[in-house]
Amino acid sequence: MRFLVRDRLLGIGDDYWIEDDQGNKVFLVDGKAMRLRDTFELKDARGRVLIDIRKKMFALRDTMVIERDGEALAAIRRKRLSLLRNHYRVTLTDGTELDVSGKILDREFAVEYDGELLAVISRRRLHIRETYGVDVVRDDADPALLIAVTVCVIHLAEREREG
Length: 163
Fold this sequence. Notes:
Layout: E1 2-6, E2 15-20, E3 25-31, E4 39-44, E5 49-55, E6 63-68, E7 71-78, E8 86-92, E9 97-103, E10 108-113, E11 116-122, E12 131-136, H1 143-162
Antiparallel strand pairs: 1-2, 1-12, 2-3, 3-4, 4-5, 5-6, 6-7, 7-8, 8-9, 9-10, 10-11, 11-12
C-alpha cells in the first residue's frame, strides 16, 4: 500500500491531504493552530478523526503522543544515543516497540518492529516534486498508525533542527 504526501514546510495550523497511489484523498492531516502544544488530527476522507497527535507538555525529551478514541496508543521520542542517523522509538501502550531510523529530514527512513520492516518512507522513485511516499509493507499493519508515526518523527526532527 503506497501513500503520497506532498511535502512542504509544515507549521502548526497547516492542513494537507495524503493520497493513495491512484490519487484518491485518503487521510487529512489537520494541524491545530492556537493551541499551547503541537497538535494534529489524522482524519479519513469523510472528516472523521482517526488519530489525535499531541506533543507531551511535561517531558524531559520532546515526546509526541498518539491517541485513538481518547485512549493513548503510542509515545514517540528520539533515542538518546544515535550519532550517525536519526533514531526514534515508538512505544505502544501494550509495551511493543517500533524503531524508526534513517534520514528523517531527507524523507528516507524505515519503520520496523523487531527487525521486520513495516513501512518505508522515501522520495526515491517518485517523479512528483516535493512529495514522498509512505509504503506500508505488511498487509496486517495499521496504515493510519504508520502515517501518524511518520508525521510525528518528521515534526520532531524539524523541531530539533530549529533548535
